[in-house]
Amino acid sequence: MMSDLEKNRLFRGIKDESLSRMLTCSKAVYKKYKKDRIIFEQGDKIEELFVLLKGRVSIFRSFASGKKHILYELDAGSTFGENCFLDETENQKYSALAITDAEIIQIPWRFFSCFCDEACEHHQQLVRNMLGILSNKEQLAVKKLNIVSSTSLKERISTWLLEEADEEGIVRLRMKREQLAEYLGVARPSLSRALMKLQEEGLIELQRNYIKIKDYKKITNFL
C-alpha cells in the first residue's frame, strides 16, 4: 500500500516514515469498493478526502430527469472530494462511482488544518500538495466547460479530440462509448453517427482503443 501512496501527488516529497506516521495520526481509513458501487452520492455530507490507490472512479452529476452527466474519470494515483477542502460544511455537488474494483484511503479533512509539533513540516508539504491538486482540478473543470459550451456536436467532439490528443494525434479511449457520450453530454447514437461521419470525411481514424486525428486543420476549423 505504501508504494501506491508514494505515487500519489498528495504525498509528493513526504518520506515513508513520515507518511506512515501521518496516516496513523490522521486516522485514515483503508477501504475496498467493488465495481459499480457508489462511493458517495450527490448531496452527501463528506468529511474526508479520497485517495485512489487502485482502480478507476467516475465522477458524475445526476439530474431530476434521470440523466447522468460524467464530469471526468480518475485513475489510481488521483484524489477526489476536494470541493469540501475550504468549506467542510458544503455538501457534495457530484457522485463518485467505482467503475472497477477500487482501493481507497479516506483521510479526515480536519487533519489538513490541525498541525502538530511532530509533523508540522510534513503537514505543510501536504497542504501545498493539496493546493496543487485543487489547481489541477480547476484546469479539468475549465477543459470540461470548453467542451460542453460548444454550439454544435462536431465542435464539441473536435474540442474534446484536440484536448485529449497526444503528440502523434492519438486519443486513447479509456471510456466506453456510452460513458463518452455522457461525458460529452450527447446521446450515444448521435455520438456514433458523428464519429463515423468524421471518419468518412477523412478527418479521423476510428479504432477499438483509440482515435487518430488525420486532419488537424479541418478539425480545428470546427472550433
Describe the structure using short key phrases:
39% helix, 8 helices, single chain, elongated, 24% strand, alpha+beta, 11 strands, 223 residues, four-stranded antiparallel β-sheet
Task: Please characterize this protein's 3D structure.
Helices cover 39% and strands 24% of the residues. The chain is built from eight helices and eleven strands. A hairpin with a 3-residue loop joins strand 10 (204-206) and strand 11 (210-213). The chain is elongated and about 60 Å long. The model has no long low-confidence stretch (mean pLDDT 84).
Number of strand elements: 11
Multimeric organization? single chain
Spatial order of strands in the largest sheet: 1-8-3-6
Query: Whole-number radius of gyration?
Result: 20 Å
Broad structural category: alpha+beta
Number of helical segments with 4 or more residues:
8
Q: Major sheet, described briefly?
A: 4 strands, antiparallel
- Given as residue ranges, the uncertain stretches (5+ residues, pLDDT < 50) are none
Give the rounded overall mean pLDDT: 84
In whole angstroms, how far apart are the ends?
44 Å
Helical content stands at 25-40%
Judging from the principal axes of the Cα atoms, what is the shape?
Answer: elongated
Strand content: 15-25%
Order of helices and strands: HHEEEEEEEEHHHEHHEEH
Q: What is this structure, in a nutshell?
A:
This protein is α+β, with helices and mostly antiparallel strands and 223 residues long. It has 8 helices and 11 strands.
